[in-house]
């Protein structure tokens, strides 16, 4: 039941309004002055306040500021005795939802209350979604208890509180975007936009347009003005993934943004000013790229004000088990396959693998295992063949494989992994007919 608080020093007005509102199914409470009303707000959870302008110990218009500061989701409707427009205007500026004249506008109260409550409900839903989003992208959601990952999280937490430009380095799949989102979420710009762009996904000209925007007619196909991602991220954070892939000519324009906070859209002559925090990421050694002439040294020193190297999964083997369990739960829910446990042999094989694709590769392997298993337990046979050969505790598994069928099975599995499961491409690479591949996949239960 929605709760309404009426603050008015006239008892007859309070009683009348309370009766009208209660008949609509609302829970109504009353207060005769500012102090009593505010005390009630602190003790209980109200949705809307109906507040008189002139009260014995204060002014309802000024009280609106105090209420909104403490209870920003609560809506306030101001009651005026004589339809005082200046009071009403000031009340709206102070954060009130609306104002009505006592006595004359009683028939407007209920529709107005419903509209105010709709706004409150919407604000509460948005707050819940934001809370869930914040929790999803917080450092607390990064899985791992190894010393190296905890040290990395600690570094990232410290820089998150500042506005410093951050460079995240590390192998592919180590979670650079996850860290970038967490840094944004725990920083000063948390309520502003987080915009991500993969610099390797576009050619030079298209990347420039994506980043900085363009004017209509600036190139073929530019039929209207287009905002760039830097403009979209204004006052927030922009994440430049794979920055090492950015063309050298475009690096100069990025350097200008870092130095002046300005850029020029494609086809425009006047600069656009923005205030953004830049987080960049790369799996390349940028200092070597500088020596090769592929990356600007001055840009490197601007983006590498605070550098964080994310550890490879093989450097944090202790974290493989909790990560695997998390992915098993995730994909069990997604696929509606109930996996109750994973065997020690399964885990041991995961721990012995080199994980060149790091967490992303582990996630893909777990997803595949969950989809293909016919059991409620993930065991060694649930894994791809190349991972099965890393198991310990079984000498036969560690000896070189000479059996022709087993060698063929392993080779087919490797080619399938290479093509990401594309059977047509796999058949072409193996130089066999597609029907032959299907037969062998069925024979080897791949």
Q: How many strands appear in the DSSP assignment?
A: 18
Total number of helices: 20
* Approximate shape: extended
CATH architecture annotation name of the largest domain: 3-Layer(aba) Sandwich
**Poorly predicted residue ranges:** 391-399
Task: Give an overview of the whole structure.
- The structure is a single chain.
- The chain is of the alpha/beta class and 446 residues long.
- It folds into three domains: 3-133, Rossmann fold; 139-311, Rossmann fold (3-Layer(aba) Sandwich); 314-443, Helicase, Ruva Protein, domain 3 (Orthogonal Bundle), CATH 1.10.8.
- It has 20 helices and 18 strands.
- The strands form six sheets. The protein has a five-stranded parallel β-sheet with strand order 2-1-3-6-7, with helices on both faces. It has a five-stranded parallel β-sheet with strand order 9-12-15-8-16.
- A hairpin with a 2-residue loop joins strand 4 and strand 5.
- The longest helix has 31 residues, at 106-136.
- It starts with a strand and ends with a helix.
């Amino acid at each position: 039941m929605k709760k309404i608080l009426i603050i008015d020093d006239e008892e007859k007005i309070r009683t009348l309004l309370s009766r009208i509102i209660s008949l609509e199914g609302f829970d109504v409470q009353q207060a005769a002055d500012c102090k009593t009303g505010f005390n009630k707000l602190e003790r209980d959870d109200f949705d809307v306040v109906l507040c008189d302008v002139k009260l014995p110990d204060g002014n309802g218009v000024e009280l609106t500021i105090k209420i909104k500061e403490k209870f920003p989701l609560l809506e306030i409707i101001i009651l005026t005795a004589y339809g005082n427009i200046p009071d009403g205007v000031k009340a709206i500026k102070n954060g009130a939802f609306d104002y009505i004249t006592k006595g004359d506008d009683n028939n407007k109260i209920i529709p107005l209350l419903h509209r105010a409550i709709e706004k409150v409900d919407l604000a509460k839903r948005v707050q819940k979604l934001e809370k869930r989003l914040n929790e999803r992208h917080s450092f607390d959601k990064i899985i791992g208890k190894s010393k190296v990952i905890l040290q990395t999280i600690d570094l990232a937490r410290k820089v998150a509180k500042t506005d410093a430009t951050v460079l995240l380095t590390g192998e592919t799949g180590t979670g650079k975007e996850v860290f970038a989102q967490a840094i944004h979420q725990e920083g000063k710009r948390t309520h502003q936009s987080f915009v991500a762009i993969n610099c390797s996904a576009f050619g030079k000209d298209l990347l420039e347009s994506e980043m900085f925007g363009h004017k209509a007619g600036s190139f073929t196909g530019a039929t209207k003005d287009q905002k760039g991602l830097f403009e979209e991220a204004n006052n927030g954070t922009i994440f430049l993934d794979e920055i090492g892939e950015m063309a050298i000519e475009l690096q100069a324009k990025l350097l200008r943004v870092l130095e002046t906070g300005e850029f020029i859209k494609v086809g425009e002559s006047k600069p656009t000013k923005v205030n953004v925090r830049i987080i960049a990421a790369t799996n390349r050694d940028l200092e070597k790229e500088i020596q090769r002439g592929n990356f600007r040294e001055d840009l490197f020193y601007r983006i590498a004000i605070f550098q964080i190297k994310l550890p490879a999964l093989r450097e944090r083997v202790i974290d493989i088990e909790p990560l695997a369990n998390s992915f098993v739960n995730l994909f069990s829910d997604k696929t509606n396959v109930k996996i109750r446990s994973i065997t020690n042999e399964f885990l041991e094989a995961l721990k012995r693998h080199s994980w060149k694709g790091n967490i992303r590769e582990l996630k893909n392997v777990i997803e595949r295992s969950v989809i293909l298993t016919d059991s409620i337990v993930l065991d060694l046979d649930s894994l791809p063949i190349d991972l099965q050969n890393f198991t310990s505790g079984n000498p036969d598994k560690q000896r070189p494989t000479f059996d022709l069928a087993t060698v063929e099975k392993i080779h087919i599995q490797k080619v399938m992994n290479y093509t990401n499961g594309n059977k047509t491409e796999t058949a072409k690479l193996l130089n066999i007919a597609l029907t032959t591949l299907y037969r062998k996949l069925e024979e080897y239960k791949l």
